[in-house]
Amino acid sequence: MSGNAVRLQAINNVEAYIPPAISFVPGEEPGEIFGSNVFTKAEMQSRLPKAVFKSVVATIEKGTKLDPAVADSVAAAMKDWALEKGATHYAHVFYPMTGLTAEKHDSFLEPVSDGQTLAEFAGKTLIQGEPDASSFPSGGLRSTFEARGYTGWDVTSPAYVLENPNGNTLCIPTVFVSMTGEALDYKTPLLRSQQAMGVHAERILKLFGHQDLNKVVSFCGPEQEYFLVDRHFFLARPDLVNAGRTLFGAKPPKGQEFDDHYFGAVPERVLGFMMDTERELFKLGIPAKTRHNEVAPGQFEIAPMFERANIASDHQQLLMTVFKTIAKKHGMECLFHEKPFAGVNGSGKHVNFSMGNSELGSLLVPGDTPHENAQFLVFCAAVIRAVHKFAGLLRVSVASATNDHRLGANEAPPAIISIFLGEQLADVFEQIAKGAATSSKGKGTMIIGVDTLPPLPTDPGDRNRTSPFAFTGNRFEFRAPGSGQTVAVPLIVLNTIMADSLDHMATILEGAVENGEDFDTAVQKLLTDIITEHGDVVYNGDGYSEKWQIEAAERGLPNLKTTLDAIPELVKPEAVELFEKYGVFTERELHSRYEVRLEQYVLTIAVEAKLTLEIGTTVVLPAALRYQTELAQNVATLKAAGVEPNLAALEAVSAPLTDLTAALATLKSALSDHSAQSALEEAKHAQQALLPAMDAVRSAADALEGVVADDLWPLPTYQEMLYIL
């Protein structure tokens, strides 16, 4: 294959790649290593005094307040365990509003007399840390000179040892708050929201006769999509290195139109990476379950099993870190951007959401006859009400400059938030709306016509991949979150809006019981009222169709197409009232998120715009000019020889070259405009001026890629990056 020196060298390096040693030792079973680097309940039980262990478990399972008196015992046991695992340092791991993971490492060693040291880790050190808070996004909650911030141990999320060739670290998941107690992170509001939802879910369960329950929590199983590219190609693309996506790149002759990558055989090199990551995930107690090729070439997916929402959120952040690290070991780069390559599918992070506890399991299991399962119908109706009433908050929970490239395309759900219930549940709720549900559509049997195959059971209804919020048998799948974001944000919103719905429904049912009304009759009336008032959010059709866009507007469903359309939802009076009522955010904390989201939007697009200008000016333009010069010299040579030259090739490169020069000038001018007086004005300038200018530069550059001689083109192409792996 032709190509310039950098591209050829990258291709040669891919060919010369030698895989690292095997991941799973022959004979080693995954169960043997699962959780081996986690300070599990079993580990605590074997190391802690019985009373201390019971106290910690009560906090985890019952939600009782943590007794500070147990901290010294837990810290000592945790330290001994970590030292046995080779840890030299400990770190409070927290999740600031960057959406990433942060940590400060401290050594276990403490100096004593005569120049000696001891390994120390006190209870107060376990419970609280103090990283500098001044340089993290705060949205006005903190000034730069106000540096004090605190981390606090989240006892419900287990500590773990993170291995590194140069030394291991004990990692302790924590919240991150300011000196005033205001949340500077995503874990704090997630825990608050989960607590609020649990309180009102338990009120409902008590009405159904359940007493003395372990606390109800939300559960999450996030499906992570990602791309892999060879690291040599990655390092030769400044846009991928700095922005996470390609700002230039012509569509290759073959994309994903054959559907031949989806669920295809996993390439050997990629499978080696997957096996390696899974072994590390297992050691960290992350229950990786499913792996497969995704739709686009070079795109893959991993899906862990359900966990408590706050643990799933922590594990999701840890998973991304592990993937990035292991990919480098295999000579690849893992891309979590929602749209790293134009023209092929982007990547999402589907949040599978349910709620329940250790005794009852999931509360969203309908059973074979859901029309008879009143408890399930109440919780399902609560979801319907919550999603309909607070669709704007769900939309803003997944809004970002990066996810704007993905949402609304035929690879991801539309920006209109609706619910897919499936044929069976839709029928049950239609019956409820008319008075009472008396039947449920049952499962069927599929006869394939091959005698050697057994009859295959079929579900009562199909799935709908075009729905942003779909019921899938025992959970709701929120398909709109982007692959690079933290799942904590949509989980915070889901927990809070569910708290509101469950509170509303529990209050009505409790009032009916107090007034001596028949409970079953009260439930039936409540369900009828909810589906009548909020049923417009249920849609089982094609979410990609133009017809749905029109129908959704007629139903009054919001269509917040871009991040800037969605962000104001955060600070509407009804949002402030909701989050304050359930103790999830104060008004100041909510406004801080609004400011941070605007700032991140502006910074993301500004970096991309600067990169577009730089690469367009210093990489693409010189290559095109060289080729134009070659062609012009060829024309001159032919004319001098008395041969009439064909000017088609010269004209083909000159037209987009003129367009590129003009587009770069426009982009440079847009970048130099600093007239915005507020974060919102800056964001609007980024959306209305920078993005169109970047698109114009890309359009001209991609046209040039199709006509400039291959040996002069400097950037690795889509054809190379997506297929040479």
TrEMBL record:
Residue ranges occupied by any GS beta-grasp domain in the UniProt entry:
88-181
Domain of life of the organism encoding this protein: Bacteria
Q: Which InterPro entries match?
A: Gln-synt_C, Gln_synt_N, Gln_synth/guanido_kin_cat_dom, Gln_synth_cat_dom, Gln_synth_gly_rich_site, GS_Type-3, GSIII_N
The GO annotation for biological process reads: glutamine biosynthetic process
Domain named GS catalytic: residues: 197-620
Q: Which GO terms describe its molecular function?
A: glutamine synthetase activity
Write out the similarity annotation: Belongs to the glutamine synthetase family.
Q: What is this protein called?
A: Glutamine synthetase
Native species of this protein?
Mycobacterium bohemicum
